[in-house]
Write a structure and sequence with these properties.
Chemotaxis protein CheY; disordered C terminus; 41% helix; five-stranded parallel sheet; Sig_transdc_resp-reg_receiver; alpha/beta; Bact_response_regulator; CheY-like_superfamily
């Protein structure tokens, strides 16, 4: 089902990896994004690293806050070391705000806060990829 899909976005050959331990969150994000961008849902970073080879590298990684809780803020550096051009967004609920802020301070590029809404998720992805007519989102130092 294609809801408000722009064809130019659907064929721009960018991809998103949704990495979250929560199967429902992964499925919801994959459903919201798959019409406009190649989207892969994965339960762990190890799965993402195995899938994200030279020919299938992600442009955006949506990182579930549960992984950030388990592995700590240093996981952001690990992801960026593996994929230098990647943009990392933390998927979080308000109850995990402190963990998400630690991830942002460690270098994540932004956050998606639950409840997730189709238009909000798509707009955030467009913004971070510079597909909304403006410049791509830039992480500022010194948070």
């Amino acid at each position: 089902m294609q809801i408000g899909v722009e064809t130019s976005k659907a064929v721009d050959q960018r991809r998103v990896f949704v990495v979250d331990e929560d199967e429902i969150t992964r499925a919801a994000l994959q459903f919201m994004l798959h019409d406009e961008i190649e989207t892969h849902e994965l339960a762990s970073l190890d799965e993402a690293y195995a899938k994200g080879t030279d020919w299938l590298t992600p442009d955006v990684l949506l990182l579930g806050v549960s992984i950030l809780k388990t592995r700590g803020p240093a996981v952001i550096d690990e992801i960026v070391a593996r994929y230098p051009a990647i943009r990392v967004l933390i998927v979080t609920g308000k109850e995990d705000e402190e963990v998400a802020i630690a991830g942002l301070k460690a270098g994540a590029h932004g956050a998606l806060v639950k409840p997730l809404r189709l238009e909000t998720v798509r707009k955030k992805i467009d913004t971070i990829l510079g597909r909304d007519g403006g410049a791509a989102l830039v992480q500022l130092g010194g948070l």
